[in-house]
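Read as chain and fold; for instance:
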Amino acid sequence: MSEHEQPGVPEIFTNRGLRPLPPEELEARILTFLASRRLCVLSTCRNNIPRSTPIPFRSKGFTLFMAGEPGQKLGNIKVNPNVSIGLFDPKSEFSENIHDITGLQIRGRGRLLRKDDPGFMEAFRLFGRPEAWAEHWFGMMIEVVAERIELLAMGLKLEGYAARQIWTPPGS
């Protein structure tokens, strides 16, 4: 029995695994996870009233883009650009294996892009829709540049790393 093990308790619960991933490995894992997902939960807030919205997204590096139809989330971002984004690996939802639990929590600032704003068409193209559609679309692109990303991956404990890893942009 290792120093962390307790009779009848799986080691995943007792092994704290405190080692951080090397920064380049953490970045690679985060970018791979972002590229493999298409739906996130965007959380906004106004007057201390939070709102969480499931919404399709695309990413370019550590920046996420969402196509926002007019609604409360856009109004919230206008008055409070601080946002949080949650993503998880759906295989963990029905898995009995705790090692499958994987997700990201992203904190950043939301910026709304109108059709005539620089970067709008580049973001629109990430969704793979015909450019002609943008002309008739009445929504806005939501751009979120990540300021902090928490990767929770219980399987990292099997590799001797902490299950929770923190990424911040270089120089922050």
The two ends are 42 Å apart (CA to CA). Residues 11-162 form a domain with the Pnp Oxidase; Chain A fold (CATH 2.30.110.10).
